[in-house]
Design goal:
Layout (H helix, E strand, L loop, with lengths): L2 E5 L5 E4 L12 E13 L6 E6 L8 E4 L3 E8 L7 E4 L24 E7 L5 E7 L11 E6 L13 E10 L4 H9 L9 E3 L6 E8 L6 E5 L4 E6 L2 E2 L4 E2 L2 E3 L4 E7 L6 E8 L7 E8 L18 H10 L26 E12 L2 E6 L2 E3 L6 H7 L21 E3 L2 E5 L3 E8 L5 E5 L4 E8 L17 E2 L1 E4 L3 E8 L4 E7 L2 H5 L3 E7 L30
Amino acid sequence: MAVGNVVAAAALLLFLATSALLVAGDDPYRFFTWTVTYGDITPLGVKQQGILINGQFPGPTIEAVTNDNLIINVFNKLNDPFLISWNGIQQRRNSFEDGVAGTTCPIPPGGNFTYILQVKDQIGTYFYFPSLAFHKAAGGFGAIRVLSRPMIPVPFPPPAADYPLLIGDWYKTNHTDLKYMLDSGKALGFPDGLLINGRRRTYRFRISNVGLSTSLNIRFQGHTMTLVEVEGSHTMQTTYSSLDVHLGQSYSVLLTADQPAYDYAVVVSTRFTSKIISTTAVLRYSGSAGKSPAALPGGPTIQIDWSLNQARSIRWNLTASGPRPNPQGSYHYGMVTTTRTIRLASSSATVNGKQRYAVNGVSHVNPDTPLKVADYYKIAGVFSVGTISDSPSGGGGAYLQTAVMGASYRDYVEIVFENPENEVQSWHIDGYAFWVVGMDGGKWSSASRQGYNLRDAVSRYTVQVYPNSWTAIYMPLDNVGMWNVRSENWARQYLGQQFYLRVWTSSTSWRDEYPIPKNALLCGRAAGRRTRPL
């Protein structure tokens, strides 16, 4: 029984992204030319200004294979500076290409910049998004799909088709007005809706939450989902009737089309909100007799324990190969002694009469020169290492500061995200994947380590922290650079809940870190300097 396309319904956008043209041949280079423009979009039935890539909303899908080099020439036709960041792509030895304010100079209006990326030793499901100002609220995002090399076994039969699904909350208000609200100290309020826009065999759906503020739950009427991959890690193949997807997270599920030929609903709804928004798209079988007579599947709403138990049930597949032939479990992360514990507590505060958010009492402010560029040229006065501590301040309030934490290359750190607030947090670390070894309610203490999963915790790059709870991760600092650690709630990130982790070595070898790209844009106090000889 074949499945047709997923048909969009109002109020929730399930983005079925379009595949980009790939370059054939043995040379692992794939070339893309993107033009970024404003254009009219109507995701919730109301015309508004959106950000398009090559005229598309959402943008083109990037398809790649492990270790491919991606050459992406971006032309900025907006009237604002613009950058794209690559959620989950680790940018090995090359944080200059990360595309956030602390690493990369913006592409000026009318200008262009060519990103040179490599998906080194990675497989799985990722996405890209505009990182500056509040552009993410207008679109400009798309899916990234990194396939295993042909000689590397995958722990499930090849699916009949593979669809990226980008889901997220949405505001009808223009992104410039949303930015003005935040700059004025006002809250964004509840989103106007969620977006779905999209499409006897098994199909793979790669689901990413690209929204601004809301955790979501997804389910398929009359079908279960088998989880097979989380953010580059093959998982134990557990079956779920519905799945929580928190901000910035990505999952791959298999769905077997083994039901009578009807149209089945794909349902997405908000989680942990006082008001529940939900909407549907249609999973259409070929030869469909019409709408399925079955009731729409209900989903969880505010239940924290349900979500926590589901998160704990997601386990690493120890015997499956990842991007390399050796099994994922050959790296015994739980047997390595940690060298440092970093505790990060989120907070909400009023600073100078306006709403701000902070980490360990520091609300980050971007300087006039990207931190990585200033570091490379040794420009004094842009930032200081150690302006954010590795444990909570203990006092109330927050202060504004360019927040940079120092760390040593090849350290093995334990990071504990602490959430004393009453809303779910979602945290992302650029440049890395990490093992989620524990999460629980209450306050973290050294005794909490007794409950850590040191055998088959999943490795991923974005993790949730439940209200009045903590989440602990282990992470090897094996990637030199300046890396953004941020809230995936975009208003909190914009208003300071982020910092940069400077992973440093005294070595100047290219084996440890690449030099600044030859084509790097230079701005701020680095303007007028030279990169390196062409």
